[in-house]
Design the sequence.
């Protein structure tokens, strides 16, 4: 879940590494460091932020003329966040950076102890540097690196440099690593955001790949040690797309971009007459027509997108839909139906807890579709077919525009499958085309109100989020957003379940955020739940297109068809969380303990 950058070329590596690390800050981290190579390896690393690293570099006697280097931002898994445990890890002749987990590091540590090598840190990653150093006694750098990689078990993206070679060695297995191609220069990074300032052309390494990178020369070897050809992919993002554009935080910018994210995702796929063109699914028509069960697997916000779309998928297709949490799904014996379809959802396309269930489904012969935002990511490549959300880069750790763009794809999938099964869903498809306008209208209506309510309520320590039907998973997502960035305890519940336990929490110090669509089948029952809250002294913040006197506060939004409520009702929940965190003075784009892409279990 950390970030890796590397450079080999004719320019000075240091400023490129630092800019790359800054671009990866959104992934979440607790320490940072760089290593540069000239006649020897210079390393500077520290606990804290990149600004702290820059201060140390300024104070050090670093050889800033180096044209080869690697950098790292660490999110602690093994060992506390300390300067010692920060990357790069070094030995006499080697420096490495590592993203992932080395599962057999204790066995390797015992092996190295017999050879006279011991760890100086608490990390599993240091084992990689020690192993390379050991193998350097008999082999050249690339062979020593290759032999090291062969001994590792777990997930990893690794970059290494050595005093004995003028290139970077890299390896990938179940953690993301991309190569950026420049003019007589080559870059490496955990994702394209770190490199988009320098190039739009990338090679996405495959699991098992090992590569040697020297200026403009790239040699890639597959898991069988054969020289491999990997295609070059052009990513049409601009640097400006990955910058704040005048907004105080990426999160607010990305909430403001949700209409554009949905528009880009649907506009070339839904015709004005309601016909759907999903070229990504060409050739799957018979499979989709005969599907009798859909299994959606995802984590976090993507999981809640799946839950929100579940009743719509069932209504438009007539097919049973299961929505499962990836980290749980992989450990129980799921019983597939005869004509099951498996759908994996992940913004980054690298989420380990979603990737493994996807592999399991493929191993069981189940047709698979992925919904991801990052082109050529692992989950996109593993699935039989991928439908990309076209949301552009999402930098803030707290996911926002990914949610609505994932909903857009799930709704298009529902309408397309319904059409294949003989249903006329053209009216609903045309209504989906209205979502970008309604999303923008919602932002304009809700922004100021959410701001003022958050300012008045941000000091409360506990919240309940309540909803029924399609509004229930929205309550879950709203509670998650508040927890993620404001660090306020919040729990989402079905409103009808409140009296089965959570009502015991209601008092003057526990506000309830009630998500209620006035046209939902149980609106009156939701209002009855509000009466129960009020009779116990609780405060109510209502999110609805229809104000009601029972609420202490209301964030009013445009009226929207109930089936499509998720696209607009989520916006005020995101804004309320954002402004609550803002008034509490928290680091909104990089909340504590969190990483953007969870690439380890």
Sequence:
């Amino acid at each position: 879940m950390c970030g890796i950058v590397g450079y080999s070329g004719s320019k000075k590596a240091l400023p490129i590494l630092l800019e790359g690390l800054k671009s990866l800050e959104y992934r979440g981290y607790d320490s940072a460091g760089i290593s540069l190579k000239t006649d020897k390896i210079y390393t500077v690393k520290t606990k804290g932020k990149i600004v702290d690293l820059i201060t140390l570099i300024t104070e050090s006697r670093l050889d800033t003329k180096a044209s080869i280097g690697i950098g790292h931002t660490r999110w602690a898994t093994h060992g506390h966040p300390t300067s010692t445990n920060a990357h790069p890890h070094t030995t006499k002749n080697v420096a490495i950076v590592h993203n992932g987990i080395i599962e057999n590091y204790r066995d390797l540590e015992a092996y190295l102890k017999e050879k006279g090598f011991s760890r100086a840190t608490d990390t599993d990653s240091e084992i990689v540097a020690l192993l390379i150093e050991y193998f350097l006694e008999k082999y050249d750098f690339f062979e020593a690196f290759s032999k090291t990689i062969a001994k590792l078990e777990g997930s990893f993206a690794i970059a290494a440099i050595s005093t004995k070679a003028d290139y970077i060695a890299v390896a990938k297995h179940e953690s993301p690593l991309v190569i950026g191609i420049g003019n007589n220069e080559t870059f490496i990074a955990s994702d394209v955001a770190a490199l988009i300032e320098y190039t739009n052309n990338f090679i996405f390494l495959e699991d098992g790949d090992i590569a040697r990178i020297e200026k403009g020369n790239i040699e890639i070897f597959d898991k069988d040690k054969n020289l491999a050809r990997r295609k070059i992919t052009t990513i049409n993002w601009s640097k400006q797309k990955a910058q704040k554009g005048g907004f105080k935080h990426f999160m607010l910018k990305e909430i403001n971009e949700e209409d554009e994210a949905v528009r880009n995702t649907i506009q070339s796929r839904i015709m004005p007459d309601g016909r759907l063109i999903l070229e990504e699914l060409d050739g799957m028509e018979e499979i989709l027509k005969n599907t009798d069960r859909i299994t959606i697997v995802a984590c976090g916000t993507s999981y809640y997108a799946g839950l929100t779309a579940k009743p719509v998928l069932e209504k438009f297709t007539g097919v049973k839909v299961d929505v499962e949490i990836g980290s749980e799904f992989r450990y129980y014996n799921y019983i597939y139906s005869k004509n099951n379809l498996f759908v994996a959802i992940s913004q980054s396309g690298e989420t380990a807890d979603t990737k493994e269930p996807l592999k399991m489904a493929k191993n069981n012969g189940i047709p698979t579709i992925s919904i991801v935002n990052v082109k050529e990511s692992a989950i996109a490549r593993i699935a039989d077919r991928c439908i990309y959300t076209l949301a552009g880069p999402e930098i803030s750790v707290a996911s926002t525009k990914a949610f609505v763009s994932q909903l857009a794809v799930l709704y298009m999938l529902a309408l397309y499958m319904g059409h294949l099964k003989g249903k006329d869903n053209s009216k609903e498809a045309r209504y989906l085309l209205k979502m970008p306008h309604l999303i923008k209208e919602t932002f304009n209506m809700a922004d100021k109100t959410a701001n003022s309510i958050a300012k008045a309520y941000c000091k409360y320590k506990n919240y309940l989020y309540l909803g029924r039907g399609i509004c229930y998973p929205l309550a879950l997502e709203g509670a998650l957003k508040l927890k993620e960035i404001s660090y306020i305890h919040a729990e989402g519940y079905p409103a009808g379940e409140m009296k089965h336990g959570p009502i015991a929490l209601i008092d003057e110090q526990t506000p309830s955020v009630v998500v209620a669509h006035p046209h939902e089948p149980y609106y009156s029952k939701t209002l009855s739940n509000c009466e129960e809250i009020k009779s116990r002294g609780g405060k109510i913040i209502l999110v609805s297109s229809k104000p009601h006197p029972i609420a202490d506060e209301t964030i009013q939004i445009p009226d929207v068809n109930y089936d499509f409520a998720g696209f607009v009702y989520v916006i005020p929940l995101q804004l309320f969380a954002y402004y609550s965190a803002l008034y509490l003075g928290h680091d909104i784009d990089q909340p504590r303990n969190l990483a953007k892409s969870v690439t380890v279990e």
In short: The CA atoms of residues 545 and 559 lie 5 Å apart. The mean pLDDT is 90.
